[in-house]
Amino acid sequence: MAYQRIPYEDLAKSPLAKLTDIASSALGSEIIEVTDEFFAPASNMINPLPPVHAPGKFVSTGAWMDGWETKRHNQNYDWCIIKLGFAGTIRGFDIDTTYFTGNQAPAASVEGCFCPCGNLAGAKWVEVLPKESLPPTSHNVFVLDKETEKFTHLRVNNYPDGGIARFRAYGNVDPIFPENKDEVLDLAFVGNGGRSVFCTNEHFTPASHLLLPGRGTHMGHGWETKRSRIPGYKDYAIFKLGAKGHLVKAVLDTSHYKGNYPHKIILEATDSQQEVPEETAVWTSLIEPSSVGAHALFYFDLPSTDKAFTHVRFSIVPDGGAKRLRLYGVREGGKLPLLPLANPTFEKFDDEE
Question: Which pTM was predicted?
Fold first, then answer.
């Protein structure tokens, strides 16, 4: 697999910029095997938050480090296996050694396999990134020339031992859809292949959070923009659906947004062959400007169910934040359910009505 190493400063304008970190624990990815985690557990490595520096903090095994750190003097090498929350393809990595100033892994490589049954005993591992050096306290970004095949697991090899603060695997979820096209799905959900392809403002947190599993546990788990002082302003994000389909119901979750929820929201949809719809794209209104409130769920029955869409544009007027956006429908070719669709149920927070 051909690849290039790029400066971290170039990540935002690279092909990885709008891809999904499919190794993140926020998507349900987890460490299932590890050779050693004496100083710090491998699960730290897939934490979606940046690493924390805590000089002078010690635990029973030594200095506390926010990453995966193995003990010294390995005569071979250490490795860990990540079970991806959702199967997907990969276009690049960021192997981050931030705050590991002399105890970082000197080098690492990455392998992948497709094993949906979960029995890795006979799995065929494919090298995705060969052994590459890792300088201390640095982001190490690698861009593959093309997307990989679909993987369900990744193996991170740590040569010969040491620490890695964070491991990011940028790619696209490649969903395994049910055979029955009549089944109602959240077509924007990251696990079904939905992804953010454009956003006007992500000052506090990214729009991609709107598509994550669950409801999050605090405001940092949603999308939040900076305050606008411009009359008539609105922020918006464009999401590409996991599959072209007919949308019948939307659910907006503003949990934990108690003083910074949007004044109004707007939802539109279009059918486009482009990753980001062209400027001439025709947008169909699905939710006219509508008021929402604090720390609650808001349900909307959608019109134009006869039309199939590939993208939606979600606008917040004039700014603010929300936790999740769910867009239920059926894939193109499926039979529409009896309408209006019953409101889906979600587990509620203790202080939620």
Answer: 0.93
Contacts of 316 (CB under 8 A, 6+ apart): 225, 234, 235, 236, 262, 264, 265, 322
What are 37-55's pLDDT values in tens digits?
999 999 999 999 999 999 9
Handedness of CA 189, 191, 193, 196 (dihedral sign): positive
Neighbours of 233 (CB within 10 A): 13
Query: Do the beta carbons of residue 275 and residue 196 sit within 8 Å?
Result: no
CA distances to 20, 47, 230, 248, 303 from 312, rounded to whole Å, are 18, 29, 24, 13, 14
Once rounded to an integer, what is the mean pLDDT over residues 7-36?
97
Angle (CA) 291-292-294 rounded to 5° is: 145
In whole angstroms, give the CA distance from residue 44 to residue 93. 16
Q: What is the largest distance, in Å, between two alpha-carbon atoms of the chain?
A: 65
3-state helix, strand, coil in the chain (%, to 5): 10, 40, 50
Segment 276-329, tens digit of pLDDT:
999 999 999 999 999 999 999 999 999 999 999 999 999 999 999 999 999 999
Output the six-digit token pair for 295.
């720390």
C-alpha span between 263 and 321 (Å, rounded): 10
- Are 20 and 172 in contact, with CB atoms under 8 Å apart? yes
